[in-house]
Specification:
Layout lengths: L1 H24 L11 E2 L2 H4 L14 E2 L8 H18 L2 H10 L2 E18 L2 E19 L5 E4 L1 H4 L2 E7 L5 E10 L4 E6 L10 E2 L10 E6 L12 E15 L8 E8 L11 E4 L3 E9 L10 E5 H14 L5 E2 L2 E5 L2 H6 L11 E6 L4 H5 L7 E5 L2 E2 L3 H7 L9 E7 L2 E7 L2 E2 L8 E2 L4 E5 L2 H7 L7 E6 L2 H5 L8 E5 L2 E2 L3 H11 L5 E7 L2 E7 L2
Parallel strand pairs: 9-14
Antiparallel strand pairs: 1-2, 3-4, 3-6, 4-5, 5-8, 6-7, 7-8, 10-11, 10-13, 11-12, 12-15, 13-14, 14-15, 16-23, 17-18, 18-19, 19-20, 19-21, 21-22, 24-25, 25-26, 26-27, 27-28, 27-29, 29-30
Amino acid sequence: MLKVLLKITLAIAMIYSAIMIFSSRDGATGVIDKIAVEADSSISSGLPAGPWDKTGSGTLWAQTNPIHGSSASRLDSIGQSLAGGRRNAIVTASEQVSASVVSVNVKQTQVVRTPYRNWFGNFYIPRQRTVQNIGSGFIINSRGYILTNDHVVHDGTEITVSTSDGIEYEAEIVGLDSHSDVALLKIDPGTDKLPSVRMGDSDDLLLGEWVIAIGSPFGLLLDDPQPTVTVGVISAIGRDIVRDQNAGGQIYANMIQTDAAINPGNSGGPLANALGQVIGINTFIFSPSGGSVGMGFAIPINRAVRIAEDLIRGGKVRHPWLGLKVQQLTPDLLAGLGFAQGKRINGVVVSNIQNFSPAQTTGGIQPGDVITAIDGQSVRSLDDWAGEQLDIRVGSPVLLTVLRPDRQSEVTITPAELPTEIIEQIETGMGFSLIDLTREVRSQLEARSGSGAVVVAIEKSALEREGRLLRYDILYRINDIPIESAEQAVTLLKRLRDRRGTVLFIERDGRGIKRYITR
């Protein structure tokens, strides 16, 4: 039986060979005829004419029959089509945006605690060290303004920017917004003409549309300032993420998720669409290894532009104040508010309306109301509520969707600027600054103290890192002297700073604590 099968197989092979030979002798374009290869001139020039090349033309053939003219023209046409297809929208967009991408090199001074041990036990000696941080950014106008991430340049003592053509500039920080993780830098281009990006609309994004993540992490490390380009799609929009949840980490709201690789050093670079318009700032990734696994996140460009405009106009970001204190909505709380048993509602509950606030002035909202949306964006949790505050603008009306057991309504509130940010600060000379505890500030902080001075800025990071002082601590007494104003507190501190045993009485989160001046 096996011999019969072998004979049949051999017969079929012989018949097929005969057919192929016959078709090639008749001049038909066979399968083998279609795989002729043009030899490179550098190769053919070094080879003598031989049996593989009867004419000496340097053409290597898989078979002696030449390709017919019509077949050759078809191959040329296909080659031209392929060559033209290489320059697609992604390539064009990458070229347009890349010229405006910069590498950001930051030197930061950090204070570290070095362990030291002697006969008396273990001690920690504070030491300063300089570290280098590298990120990316992009030029937003010809005057030299550059957008990047706050975490790239925060605490930077020296910042150098390298453009895509290798020119280096010293940069200064115009302003930072740690809430949004956005920073604005400024370089002096002199007579240089700087290319700038075109802005897109991050409110008009499509799931699955092509995006390009561009960064320049090696501009100052390698002798090649070209940015790196990765391509992917928009995987999701409106992502709310809390980083380092166990540590009460920062909230990133309405983020753009992409599978385009965002590698270390690319933070602060642009995320662009296929039209070459920037739609976001590459910010961070989720990764167990530190490298990209297809889960990158970018800050919407509309938010970044709003922050940049505030910084250019006034040197600071104007954070909004509605005057509403809210808490998470639970099934038990929902039932207690009078909603139907088993009714499923997502939102936050108003627990307090702060005095002298826009919410109180406007009216229409009361404790116990459930807020389900801000400007049409669903609010499902406290994280959503906090995140949506990032996209609220001072002076621009905000539409709140309010739910009560018997009806749903919409309330418009025009946010004011946070009271703690509009009062003049007074430096103490001890590494922190104070403002007066006005009635609006007291309402914003929901303070118990009737008078005092509020810590609003801490220049000496060790104070905050070690918990000795925190932002919004309220200094209401020094020794046995009640504090009525920031100016009075500064005068007392300067007079008593060199005395031992000076006690600062502080209100923090509604409770009283003491701090001592020991030097």
